[in-house]
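Exercise 7. Predict the joint structure of the components listed below.
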Amino acid sequence: GAVVSQHPSRVICKSGTSVKIECRSLDFQATTMFWYRQFPKQSLMLMATSNEGSKATYEQGVEKDKFLINHASLTLSTLTVTSAHPEDSSFYICSALEGAPSEQYFGPGTRLTVT
Amino acid sequence: QKEVEQDPGPLSVPEGAIVSLNCTYSNSAFQYFMWYRQYSRKGPELLMYTYSSGNKEDGRFTAQVDKSSKYISLFIRDSQPSDSATYLCAMRKTGGGNKLTFGTGTQLKVEL
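Solution:
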């Protein structure tokens, strides 16, 4: 199956700083990528849809100025958590669409801890 | 009411047992159905992908969709300790922009 990577796998940052998470499709081109967050023992909640070359589409309740998404190429999307606070601590997972009918393949996730 | 309901478990079974995992949904617009397996602190891994009603088998895994009842199932035969994980059902609407709606996940433990 298709492979999606994320970097870093784990990050700890201080409150008020910004953190960038990268999502890459390694063996296919993905015009669409998705960003999710997952709290402990809960399901994945879609944050935004990232389309190559255009602005991301955010889900209701997700602050677009806080969670900046850039999809500059067909294999890379980035999520920047700006001015992070402890309540932003979570597991962030990206996915990429591959093939037709399109299937979503997920990255391994990034655990963000804001102190 | 959530669009997709899934019993969170935990579900504990002995090795070799047949496991049945289920989800119900309320929106008849869902046409594509998936099962993902997620190990602790890892991203979800696609196990099964089905379209509309019917059965699909892949090795020890069988996915079943009953659209008339809005009910989907995943069966695992001859369960192994390595099957211990959280299983998430997910579904997608036709024309829904490829957005997935997930169940809460069922935590499964297969014991020796």
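Discussion. Residues 54 and 65 of chain B are 5 Å apart (CA to CA).
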